[in-house]
Amino acid sequence: MTEVTACWMSEGGRELTVLGIETSCDETSVAVLTGAHRVRSNVVATQFDVHAKYGGVVPELASRAHIENLDGAIQEAMAGAGVGRDEIDAVAVTARPGLMGCLLIGLTAAKTLALAWAKPLIGVNHVHAHACSAAIDLGPAAPPWPAVALVVSGGHTSLMLVRGPLDIETLGTTIDDAAGEAFDKVASILGLGFPGGPVVEKVAASGNPRAYDFPRTMLGDESLDFSFSGIKTAVLYRVHGPGKTAGGLARMSSQDVADVAASFQSAAVGVLVAKTLRAVERTGTRTVVIGGGVAANRYLRESLAAACQKRGVTLHLTPMCYCTDNGAMIAALGTHLLAAGRMDSLALEAQAAGAGEERRGK
Ligand code: KG4
Ligand code: ZN
After folding, report:
1. Average pLDDT of the segment spanning 293-312
2. Does residue 275 sit within a domain?
3. Which structural domain, as residue segments, surrounds residue 205?
4. Of 46, 62, 88, 141, which has the fewest beta carbons less than 10 angstroms from its beta carbon?
5. Which ligand is nearest to the CA of 26?
6. For helices 254-283 and 298-310, what crossing angle results, to 10°?
7. Which ligand is nearest to the CA of 155?
8. Ligand 1 pocket residues where CB is under 6 Å
9. Are residues 126 and 274 in the same domain?
10. Does residue 115 sit in the same domain as residue 173?
11. Tens-digit pLDDT profile for residues 241-298
């Protein structure tokens, strides 16, 4: 169930070492990072087995699983990194946005450790952490900023201008479903199981992306916002028939299913790539970074790489192991906040919402 990764190692003098805790949705993850880049441990306890039979994340079950997994994940991360409490400079934790019950589990654990170990507590914005996650692999010598960040996950789809880890402006966000949510719902419509993204990608590999012309909602010529509810409904009606929500799947061959998956993926990724390039033009920035669970999609990675190369734009892809939710990205952004003196008190509160607040610059 757990996996320990150490993707980046470096040497040097006295650098800050931060423990990062992530429990905003359905992954319990704890990491230890030194210098915001050197990942000494990154433990991820997934909950796929808990939610699979419901076809989506059940918040109450996710909270309970975090309670069961978190203590062990913290111990494993500390042992994997080979550090004791004395070497930890701060405890960073996802404070927003996310499922309220899930956030509270991580926040309570982080507050308890901060109090018991007499260390600073740092609340981290999860979406901002995804936006900065490509930097984990680049190291301190090559920060990619300023960059346009495309954050595509199960709960968020945002374009951001990242001037630096502590100066992030939201340029556009989804007005309905997130990209990952659309992948998950299409997987459910096609009877492919949960989580949907990886399985849609796998099935789409043997499908024809031009078989069906699903809507590519651009919201006009100017908008940097996204909408994925139309494509989801189009897939639903393609499978079951116009206006129908059941009964059609049994009539589809496995090739039909693959064609629908490939056509959906092509349309969704086409919009993500087009809007990212629109943000590049709008900001005049010549660098793009991409993070979040959907950034693990190879078709998206390849499509964006080809589009950026064509325009002479530099693309930094978040390493696959830091695309889906992880403690490493929380510790990385937490280190920048610590270095800037932006610690929180033990009165720090969890906030379920986030995207609208980011747009207003909070
Ligand atoms: O970032 P993440 O772990 O959690 C949130 O912050 O929401 O993203 C999870 C989402 C899920 O919707 C999952 O289906 C999607 O990322 N995902 C993918 C792939 N791997 C994960 N979507 C498309 N292709 C993938 N390979
Ligand atoms: Zn996430």
Report:
1. 98
2. yes
3. 147-318
4. 141
5. 1
6. 40
7. 1
8. 25, 153-155, 180, 183-184, 195-198, 201, 292-294, 296-297, 324-325
9. no
10. no
11. 999 999 999 999 999 999 999 999 999 999 999 999 999 999 999 999 999 999 999 9
